[in-house]
Amino acid sequence: MDTSFNGRDLLRTTLRAGNFNSDSPWTGSALLETAFDSDSEVEINRNFYRFPIGDNGFTATVGSVVRQDDMLAVWPSDYPGDTVLDVMTYAGAPSVYNLRLGAGAGLSYEAGNGWSGSLVYVGSEGDDANNGLLTDESADDITGQLAYVGDQFGAALAYTNSDSASGDYEAWGLSAYWTPAASGAWPSISGGVGFEDPETGDDENTWTVGVQWNDVFVNGNSLGLAIGSAESWDEDSDGPLAYEAWYQIAVSDNVTVTPAVFVLEREDDDDVTGAIVKTTFSF
Question: Is the pLDDT of residue 27 over 70?
Fold first, then answer.
């Protein structure tokens, strides 16, 4: 539910419900991007307000339930249009673009010549008064991003300092994309790398590359392929990889059907191979 008071601001509230665990039905192996579990209860998944500060390119965002990417000036990837595996959704740097959700605030600046900068904060335990925000007990993520967007390409360098339940770390990410001027043989190409320095343990790296063709076989249909690290991996290991391929079919203006296949390697067990058919209704 989107509301604007003056045509330049945005008040967004999102309600979401689901009964699909992110690791079902391939327990602990293949996290699906579309999966969501709230025990079938409707919950507030977003509640934030975005507004310009003057006419100089500054935009502020504040919210009681806001996600990291809601406050960034640029998302540095053209892929995915209809991803399958969750690991493909982080522009190659899941530790940087961790999509943390919670109470937060952000400030972005767009210079008008393609350059932008963002500084955002998310407290993922902000709803717990015992932990609060920016305390020794709280779970805090601070992200800074410098980005440039041209007519057919974009790139971003980002840094995240995370103090959360998953562990304390610093991480850097470099991500970029290129899109063709028109549909044809050339796909859009997106790629990124991430470097994580945890307080305990070895440094870890991640990467993904995704390509997407529009208007494939039929106008409105899309084809996508992606490969990337299935999880963080250290400098001395090739690590497991994930692969996915999907074809989005536009049945109508409001319905798409997306058959997809994927493979996820596992270091200590058999690889996981899966197939799904996802149907999306929009109104």
Answer: no
